[in-house]
Design goal:
With 105 residues, the chain is of the alpha+beta class. The chain has a domain of 72 residues. Helix content is 38%, strand content 27%. It is built from 3 helices and 4 strands; from the N terminus they run H-H-E-E-E-H-E. Strands 1, 2, 3 and 4 form a 4-stranded antiparallel sheet that branches. The radius of gyration is 24 Å and the shape is globular. The N and C termini lie far apart (73 Å). The model has no long low-confidence stretch (mean pLDDT 85).
Length: 105
């Protein structure tokens, strides 16, 4: 009786788990090019431009570390965050960055 009851409980639990909604993996953001801060400032005004800065390294040829630094500007917060996502992904060592903020510093 006990084993039959356990078997029924396991089958019920398994069917519930099988029908539960499995969240889809989030898609990576598109790759976005950083833009010139001075050009965007002239077009949109200093207060309407999104900016970040990033410093990072990655392993290059012969295991030497390559350095990267950039402080690009963007029209939207979404573009800024997408660029920062890929910078962190591509330059995955010894990172330092400022989050995206509206207004040129």
């Amino acid at each position: 009786m006990f084993t039959r009851l356990c078997a029924v409980a396991l089958v019920a639990a398994g069917s519930i788990l099988a029908t539960a909604a499995i969240p889809a993996d989030a898609a990576n953001p598109p790759r976005v090019q950083g833009q010139s801060c001075s050009k965007l400032k002239a077009q949109l005004g200093r207060a309407n431009v999104w900016q970040t800065s990033f410093v990072g390294q990655r392993k290059g040829p012969f295991d030497q570390l390559e350095n990267y630094h950039a402080a690009p500007c963007f029209r939207t917060q979404a573009d800024c965050k997408a660029w920062l996502y890929w910078a962190q992904t591509d330059w995955d060592r010894y990172q330092y960055f400022n989050p995206c903020k509206k207004g040129i510093r």
